[in-house]
Amino acid sequence: MTMIGLRHPAVDAALSTAATLLGMEVVFIGVLSESTFTFARVVGDWPGLDEGMSSDRADSFCHRMLAGAPSHTFEAVTDEAYMAAPIRRQLGIASYVGVPIRDTDGRVIGTLCGLDRDRVPVAAAAIGVLRELATILAIHMSDDLQNAVIRRTPEGWQVGDETTDDLLSAMVLADLLAGELVRPPRPARPTGTPDELTQLKATVGQLEHALAARITIEQAIGVLAERRRLTPRAAFELLRRVSRSAGLRIHDVSRLVVASATEPTELPPGLQ
């Protein structure tokens, strides 16, 4: 398997969403070979834990999780499934949560995880969200999935071969989330159970805003695609590039583009 796309906006969005949801010190994407484990992407700060750091696969929490250990523990020091892991002693890990990232054949191609040195309970609903984020990440971690799309269904996020419009829609949403879901400063650890409801409400609010903004952006993509004879993907890249060079939000530029389809409107340089 060739690892590609780990710097894609969709990957940033998934990691930012996971960090906001969990409130843990570190959220990461792990990659496992037959003999090694690597912290491929890391969000957060932890002394002694650096992006790209590798160890023996058998020493990692993720190896144990994939072998059948619980997806979450906040008592790693005494948890029989994790207490003997060398990485626990090396980093002082108290809490861990992890889910597999699988390709369309069900093969494990990585893990999406969180770590903390304090006791951090994680609700089953939050682990369910992590599994959905892992499905999004799978698209950018496997050659087999580069032409696939992601879509929301009653059963959750699905990977399939529907249309390029679906993939573009996912890219627009991921780009919005990557810019809006900013990981907040680490709060003081409460003595009781973290207020997960507050965290979830904040995340849902950001998602709802991004979904509303996506509609306008997709309309602007349609206007530019027809006006300039571009593919939808090329129109999106043009819209994003002009927005960044002008120092404007892509949503605000998109509203100007949509307005220009029906009335005279001054557009940023590069879109006139």
Q: How far apart are the termini?
A: 43 Å
Structural class: alpha+beta
Strand coverage percent: 15-25%
User: What is the global morphology?
Assistant: elongated
CATH first level of the largest domain: which class? Answer: Alpha Beta
| pLDDT < 50 runs, ≥5 residues | 144-152, 155-164, 181-193
Strand count, sense and barrel status of the largest sheet are:
6 strands, antiparallel
* CATH H-level homologous superfamily name of the largest domain: GAF domain
Give the C-alpha Rg. 20 Å
CATH architecture descriptor of the largest domain:
2-Layer Sandwich
Could you describe the 3D structure shown?
The chain is of the alpha+beta class and 272 residues long. It folds into 2 domains: 9-188, Beta-Lactamase, CATH 3.30.450; 195-272. The chain is 43% helix and 18% strand. The protein has helices at 9-22, 61-66, 86-91, 124-139, 164-180, 196-228, 232-246, 250-260; strands spanning 26-32, 36-44, 54-56, 72-73, 95-102, 108-116, 149-153, 156-160. Strands 3-2-1-6-5-4 form a 6-stranded antiparallel β-sheet. Strands 7-8 form a two-stranded antiparallel sheet. A hairpin with a 3-residue loop joins strand 1 and strand 2. Mean pLDDT is 79; it is low at 144-152, 155-164 and 181-193.
